[in-house]
């Protein structure tokens, strides 16, 4: 009922917006209400091709030693038909279905049933019950932050099994990689479809739902802002932060174990990928409370983009370097390895410090010191849908004075380091840096569009004070 009223309201807002020309009214600063042709075309493209892209990459490794061109050349030359490739692809197995179900159930259990205890003994770690940001409808959600604990328990069990219990081989993930892909797809589609139905018929908060009237856009970008089951099972936090990201480091460990099994050693490139990506994952869990204030949680609605993306895209494409190194065990010379390590650590430092500076600035409402000085900022205001006026600040010093998204720049440097660890023989491991460049540039533009509608002329003052987005003096 509430969802139907919200749908009607959405149509009225759309009508009002058309009357006001292109001027977006404040209080509508969440996801877009209207779908332009470019967004629609991109969404249709992704819905159709993203699952095929993932399949193509994984199949290329399985059947063509990670060459992205050979399958195409084979098909074009008529040496193979699509059916030949498909017939050689491992199918869904009951073993993979069992492993995957156990995995997801175990992560749900860790998320729902064990309140965080890490914050009680880890100095500086923020866990337990935390609040998210104000939603466009003016709601502040509470979250149980226990991701670090889930990650630690899972990894302790993994190492305990590998060292003592031997219930399963540490290569289990690699050995079932394609059958597990089918399971991940089933979950990804099931959860996105459920979220769509839930948004229409029993939303958690009807005022934070968005209906554009376009089925594909709503399916992809989501209707509900913070869908939940019960008080605590938050879809966005769980799917963004648990089955895929906890698995990321286990997947890499499984790839390292496969190298050991096949070649009797683990290469320095594999160790570098495990370490650098391990730091990134651990950072995510250490800062999970901060993550509540990032775009994924603060601004994106929950649809296929997050649901399927977290289940399939992230675990399968973010781990391509490790997979590649199983097929191509690259041993780097010392200079190359040290260069990769330095680039990765510098990128991580910039990424973390930039995010930390904003977090500190926002938490203390500007009453802190950045690089030994009081931060500089621009005062700004915005309104939620109910007309309540809020005040905020945009920092213009520290890394935030260098560029408006210097955290993305650090992230991109780290991403490049993972790829460079794989040498220069194939393009496949470089997919990650290409993808991250597109993702973060698009995200930057999307975020700025949203901030401009949210803060209006205050945002213009900010962009005048900090004119560059990613690279000072260039972009
Ligand atoms: P940010 O952490 O940069 O958050 C952007 C928001 O911060 C804006 O919407 C605005 O929100 C606020 N803000 C912008 N400028 C300022 C300023 N000068 N002072 C204070 N607040 C400001 O973006 P993300 O949430 O996208 O990214 C967080 C991190 O996660 C990044 O480091 C990114 O690289 C990483 N990331 C990684 C991904 C991956 O797949 N590996 C994917 C996406 C992100 P408000 O409305 O509150 O003002």
Automatic annotation (TrEMBL):
What pathway is it annotated to? Steroid biosynthesis; cholesterol biosynthesis
Reaction catalysed by this chain?
7-dehydrodesmosterol + NADPH + H(+) = desmosterol + NADP(+); cholesterol + NADP(+) = 7-dehydrocholesterol + NADPH + H(+)
Gene3D superfamilies, A to Z = 1.20.120.1630
Q: How does it sit in the membrane?
A: Multi-pass membrane protein
What residue intervals traverse the membrane? 37-58, 97-114, 148-168, 180-197, 237-255, 262-282, 302-320, 332-351, 415-440
Q: Name one cellular component (GO) term.
A: endoplasmic reticulum membrane
Basic and acidic residues: compositionally biased ranges: 1-15
Any one Pfam family here would be ERG4_ERG24
Tell me one GO molecular function of this protein: 7-dehydrocholesterol reductase activity
Which parts of the sequence are annotated with region: Disordered?
Answer: 1-23
Which example biological process does GO assign this protein? Answer: brassinosteroid biosynthetic process
The EC code for this enzyme is 1.3.1.21
> Could you tell me which PROSITE patterns the record lists for this protein?
STEROL_REDUCT_1 (PS01017), STEROL_REDUCT_2 (PS01018)
Q: Where in the cell is it found?
A: Endoplasmic reticulum membrane
What keywords were assigned to this record? Answer: Cholesterol biosynthesis, Cholesterol metabolism, Endoplasmic reticulum, Lipid biosynthesis, Lipid metabolism, Membrane, NADP, Oxidoreductase, Steroid biosynthesis, Steroid metabolism, Sterol biosynthesis, Sterol metabolism, Transmembrane, Transmembrane helix
Family the entry assigns: Belongs to the ERG4/ERG24 family.
Q: What does this protein do?
A: Catalyzes the last step of the cholesterol synthesis pathway, which transforms cholesta-5,7-dien-3beta-ol (7-dehydrocholesterol,7-DHC) into cholesterol by reducing the C7-C8 double bond of its sterol core. Can also metabolize cholesta-5,7,24-trien-3beta-ol (7-dehydrodemosterol, 7-DHD) to desmosterol, which is then metabolized by the Delta(24)-sterol reductase (DHCR24) to cholesterol.
Q: Which PANTHER family match?
A: 7-DEHYDROCHOLESTEROL REDUCTASE, DELTA(14)-STEROL REDUCTASE
What is this protein called in UniProt?
A: 7-dehydrocholesterol reductase
From which source organism is this entry? Answer: Cnemophilus loriae
């Amino acid at each position: 009922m509430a969802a139907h009223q919200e749908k009607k309201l959405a149509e009225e807002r759309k009508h009002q917006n058309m009357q006001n020309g292109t001027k977006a009214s404040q209080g509508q600063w969440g996801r877009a209400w209207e779908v332009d042709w470019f967004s629609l075309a991109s969404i249709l493209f992704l819905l159709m091709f993203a699952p095929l892209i993932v399949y193509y990459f994984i199949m290329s490794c399985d059947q063509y030693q990670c060459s992205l061109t050979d399958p195409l050349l084979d098909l074009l030359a008529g040496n193979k038909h699509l059916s030949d490739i498909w017939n050689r692809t491992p199918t869904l197995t009951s073993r993979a279905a069992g492993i995957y179900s156990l995995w997801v159930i175990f992560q749900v259990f860790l998320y729902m049933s064990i309140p965080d205890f890490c914050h009680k003994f880890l100095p500086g770690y923020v866990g337990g019950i935390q609040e998210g940001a104000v939603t466009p409808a003016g709601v502040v959600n509470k979250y149980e932050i226990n991701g670090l604990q889930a990650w630690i328990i899972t990894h302790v069990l993994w190492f305990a099994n590998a060292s003592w219990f031997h219930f399963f081989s540490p290569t289990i993930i690699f050995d079932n990689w394609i059958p597990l892909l089918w399971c991940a797809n089933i979950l990804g589609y099931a959860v996105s479809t459920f979220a769509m139905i839930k948004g229409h018929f029993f939303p958690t908060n009807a005022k934070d739902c968005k209906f554009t009237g376009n089925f594909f856009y709503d399916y992809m970008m989501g209707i509900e802002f913070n869908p939940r089951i019960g008080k605590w099972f938050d879809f966005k936090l769980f799917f963004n932060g648990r089955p895929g990201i906890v698995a990321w480091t286990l997947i890499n460990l499984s790839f390292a174990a496969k190298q050991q099994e096949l070649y009797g050693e683990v290469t320095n490139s594999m160790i570098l990928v495990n370490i650098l990506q391990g730091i990134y994952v651990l950072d995510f869990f250490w800062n999970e409370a901060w993550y509540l204030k990032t775009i994924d949680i603060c601004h994106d609605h929950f649809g296929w983009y997050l649901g399927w993306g977290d289940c399939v895209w992230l675990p399968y494409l973010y781990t391509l370097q490790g997979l590649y190194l199983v097929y191509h065990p690259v041993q780097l010379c010392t200079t190359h390895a040290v260069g990769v390590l330095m680039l990765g650590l510098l990128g991580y430092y910039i990424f973390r410090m930039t995010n930390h500076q904003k977090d500190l600035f926002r938490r203390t409402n500007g009453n802190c010191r950045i690089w030994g000085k009081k931060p500089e900022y621009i005062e700004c205001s915005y309104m939620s849908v109910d007309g309540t006026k809020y005040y905020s600040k945009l920092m213009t010093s520290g890394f935030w004075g260098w560029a408006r998204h210097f955290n993305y720049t650090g992230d991109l440097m780290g991403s490049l380091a993972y790829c460079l660890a794989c040498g220069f023989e194939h393009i496949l491991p470089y997919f990650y840096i290409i993808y991250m460049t597109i993702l973060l540039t698009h995200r930057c533009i999307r975020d700025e569009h949203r901030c401009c509608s949210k803060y209006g002329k205050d945002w213009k003052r900010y962009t005048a004070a900090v004119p560059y987005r990613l690279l000072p003096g260039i972009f």
